Amino acid sequence: MAAVEAVLIAGPTASGKSRLALALARRLDGVIVNADSMQVYDGLSILTARPTAAEMAAVPHELYGHVNPAIAYSAGAYVRDAAASLAAAKAAGKLPIVCGGTGLYFKALLGLLDTMPPVPAAIRERWRGRLAAEGASVLHHLLAQRDPAAAERIASADGQRIVRALEVGEASGQTLSALQAGQGAGPLSDARTIKVVLTPARPVLRERIARRFGEMLGEGVLAEVAAFRAMQGAMDGSAARAIGVDELGAVIDGALDIATARELAVTRTRQYAKRQETWFRHQFGPDWQRLEEADPDRIAGI
């Protein structure tokens, strides 16, 4: 393992990434570094399926729940935090095992994203003002005209990401998708990493998603969402977009029964998993090992 500087484990939600990372960390004296854009936030450990307290006590885990949900957290901020965690693992003689479902985080770590240009405050405030005045769907239509590739992968209701794409485009003179296709500096060398993406069969994944949400209900996720909604600024940030916040919030408000909320959240999670699968299939090349099962013995090079 001397020539390998990290193991990367990607895959759709509920595919078994955390279980595989834990097995490898135990076997290889590793440190697990989060690469999931929802699990970085404090306050939703159950809903975002963060590793349990027992799992986090068994081996070192980094970048889980370390961000205030009221704070905007970008891919650039993630790379800076991850670079520090990777350096600390190396200094301690431990193998970093980067695990998560956010594909852009992996590309950024490998230097496959250009550094995003700074956006002047005036441009940022103007687009935020338009979002408040016109709504996300109107700006999404505008983004589709200016940057069709970005509009295709950003949901029409995701105002924060729509505005980000528009403001970066205006500030840089290039589309966000063009910038993200570029080559930048990353803390990991593509040639010195073992890269794995989990690809469970669709029926298996669908069943796991449904079962997991039921387990979350049993673990107290409704109370967790209620506490999250009471955190100052939490509902204004990206963490509030986590699947289940709206559905369980409606239960808390008396607008939905728990069975309907569960069905809606499971459906949305399955749709999200499908989008992740499509992204990984198109964005990750043949140097990523495809594994249907989260079995460490099937990973080549370890």
TrEMBL record:
It catalyses: adenosine(37) in tRNA + dimethylallyl diphosphate = N(6)-dimethylallyladenosine(37) in tRNA + diphosphate. Its cofactor is Mg(2+). Its EC number is 2.5.1.75. It holds the Pfam family IPPT. ATP binds at residues 11-18. Gene3D superfamilies: 1.10.20.140, P-loop containing nucleotide triphosphate hydrolases. The record marks 102, 124 as: Interaction with substrate tRNA. Residues 36-39, 160-164 are annotated as: Interaction with substrate tRNA. Substrate binds at residues 13-18. GO terms for biological process: tRNA modification. Keywords: ATP-binding, Magnesium, Nucleotide-binding, Transferase, tRNA processing. GO terms for molecular function: ATP binding; tRNA dimethylallyltransferase activity. Signal peptide: none annotated. Belongs to the IPP transferase family. PANTHER family: TRNA DIMETHYLALLYLTRANSFERASE (PTHR11088). Monomer. NCBIfam families: miaA. Catalyzes the transfer of a dimethylallyl group onto the adenine at position 37 in tRNAs that read codons beginning with uridine, leading to the formation of N6-(dimethylallyl)adenosine (i(6)A). This is tRNA dimethylallyltransferase. The lineage of its organism: Bacteria, Pseudomonadati, Pseudomonadota, Alphaproteobacteria, Hyphomicrobiales. The gene is miaA.
